Amino acid sequence: MAFEGLSERLQSALQKLRGKGKVSEADVKEAMREVRLALLEADVNYKVVKDFIAKVRERAVGQEVLKSLTPGQQVIKVVNEELTRLMGGEQSKLELKSKPSVIMMVGLQGAGKTTTTGKLAHYLSKKQNRRPLLVAADVYRPAAIRQLEVLGEQIGLPVFSLGDKENPVRIAEEGVARAKEEGHDVVLIDTAGRLHIDENMMDELKAIREKVKPDEILLVVDAMTGQDAVNVAESFNRELELTGVVLTKLDGDTRGGAALSVKAVTDRPVKFAGMGEKVDALEPFHPDRMASRILG
Ligand code: GDP
Fold first, then answer.
1. pLDDT over 80 (residue 83)
2. Using CA atoms, how far apart are residues 4 and 181, in angstroms rounded to an integer?
3. For a pocket test of ligand 1, which of 245, 248, 253 has the largest count of ligand atoms closer than 8 A to its C-beta?
4. Does the predicted model carry a pTM greater than 0.90?
5. Is the predicted ipTM greater than 0.90, yes or no?
6. Lowest mean pLDDT segment, chosen from 4-13, 37-46, 64-73, 149-158
7. How many other CB atoms are found less than 10 A from the CB of residue 220?
8. ∠267-273-274 over CA atoms, to 5°?
9. Helix, strand, coil distribution of the chain in percent, nearest 5
10. Whose CA is nearest to atom 28 of ligand 1?
């Protein structure tokens, strides 16, 4: 299960405070030492941990907390609120304004980009009554186009493709034109990923962005890769100005580093979470629910 180790360690660190009628500054300090270790062990970014602990400690040793009737509970509440804030606070929704709205899906190979493109189209059609068109512009990963076509058949949505010999910029542009002609209100472009970040990929993504003027540029990253995912997000954000992140594989036994650091490091919100391989295994990301789940 995701965050299992982190969850257990945080709960045990805070358990000691829970039932206490009186909590001293030293108690808070000791608990925060353990919380800090738990976060570092879960692969949360070092600086993020430092700021988080400082913030919680400052609030937790405040008079209103320590002098309250249930000081232990109050400290836990502070941790919960700060964890929520760390992950972005309010839920971040998609902002789809243009007609048709364009969503560019970007990411490295293997992160789950193509699968997530299908899942998101399914979500928009089922939950928001939209009429998505999928555009297959990942001409580099073998079989990515076919994979999107199969997904399209599975979810009953059309897929625009020009094969893998065409320039992805042209595919994206023609896909959007097709969506206009056929009255689709949202276009999801599965762009070309690579194994590693390189200049060609970024140039190509920028060229697509210039042509199609996306409403959303969502980076798909694998939560299992921890700080690597955060570094990938930083690079993509620097080059492309992302509008959000989708964290995949949160159904696996990820330690939590990516989920807890990506917003703080990149200032880009996590908008969705992938919870499995099936097409309906995509959920809007709710920082408050995630925090409560971690704290048990
Ligand atoms: P791409 O190269 O980024 O387009 O990656 P794919 O979409 O082909 O996904 C790579 C693998 O990750 C596939 O086996 C997917 O089924 C799997 N995958 C994607 N998202 C999730 C998820 O949220 N949970 C799990 N368990 N597997 C996922």
1. yes
2. 49
3. 248
4. yes
5. yes
6. 64-73
7. 27
8. 140
9. 55, 15, 35
10. 277
